[in-house]
Specification:
44% of the residues lie in helices and 0% in strands. It is built from four helices and no strands. The longest helix is centred in the middle third of the chain and has 15 residues, at 57-71.
Length: 107
């Protein structure tokens, strides 16, 4: 079901990753940074496949460079940066999220 999803709404199987927010109000495009942060940090194999089908690689790279360090763990940032061929110099060390920081809901 996730493989063929073209709607701006998120596929129902992704609901488990957004248990703390009103899932039906999420938009793939409008809440892009929130969705990417949550799925790149906590998504399973199918969720990650959906991410790479739903968003072009340049969008993922821009997210990592601009917002990734603020919402992803260091480990996740480095993993996805290596996967997308992004250098560490694109990361601002002062922008790392703090351990235990919550998402705070939909932006």
């Amino acid at each position: 079901e996730l493989a063929r999803w073209t709607s701006n709404r998120l596929p129902k199987p992704l609901r488990v990753f957004f248990w703390d927010v009103p899932f039906l109000s999420l938009s793939r495009d409008h809440h892009r940074d929130f969705v990417l942060g949550r799925l790149l940090e906590s998504g399973d194999r199918e969720a990650i496949r959906w991410v790479f089908r739903a968003y072009p690689r340049d969008v993922l790279a821009t997210f990592l460079k601009d917002r990734g360090a603020a919402v992803l763990s260091r480990r996740s940032w480095h993993f996805w940066a290596a996967h997308l061929g992004i250098s560490r110099r694109h990361m601002a060390p002062s922008s790392w999220r703090r351990s235990g920081r919550s998402w705070g809901g939909i932006p």
